[in-house]
Amino acid sequence: MAVPAALIPPSPLVPPPPISTPSATTSPPSTTSSPSPSLAPPSGPGQTLFRSELLATSSPGIPTAALPPSKPVYSTPSPVENIPQNNECKMVELRGAKVASFTVDGCELICLPQAFDLFLKHLVGGLHTVYTKLKRLEITPVVCNVEQVRILRGLGAIQPGVNRCKLISRKDFETLYNDCTNARLVGSCVRHFG
């Protein structure tokens, strides 16, 4: 049974003790370099609370030296360069349907939300599931630039209120499609025979 919040005694907030570093106490401040922010909390009546050990780490409580070198998990790639060649849209045939595509750096890229709507939405829970699958498959879709999004909205490839979109190559779409259909087959086999 849950205890009402009023019965739990509040714990007082105690500011962390000031951190003393050898370099800060033994060397005089430099007048030629730019000022660096202080790591110690301000003293006095207007004290602020913060965890200074987080300044030197990339994740809460995990020192940077303990982390393996890798690319950031949630890095968002830059959008496609906004030049006329990248903004020429064509309707191409994909699995018997017409989808919007752009040619970027010589590679044909199709509109992922449109392809999802046409081919994948009956196979998976939603577009979020597709992005999870793309991460697992190590497929990084290309982010549309503003002009490409405007063009796709005008064509009806994406909904009017959408202001972001991603593009994917045909090869990567086929990999994604096969993963979605195989996952559906495995799931239905488990339901029928499990």
TrEMBL record:
Protein name per UniProt:
Dachshund-like protein 1
Q: Which SUPFAM superfamilies is this protein grouped with?
A: Putative DNA-binding domain
Q: Which family does it belong to?
A: Belongs to the DACH/dachshund family.
User: Which GO-annotated molecular functions does the record name?
Assistant: DNA-binding transcription factor activity, RNA polymerase II-specific; RNA polymerase II cis-regulatory region sequence-specific DNA binding
Segments of skewed composition (Pro residues)? 7-20
Q: Which organism is it from?
A: Takifugu flavidus
Q: Could you tell me which residue ranges the SKI/SNO/DAC domain spans?
A: 74-182
Subcellular location per the Swiss-Prot or TrEMBL entry: Nucleus
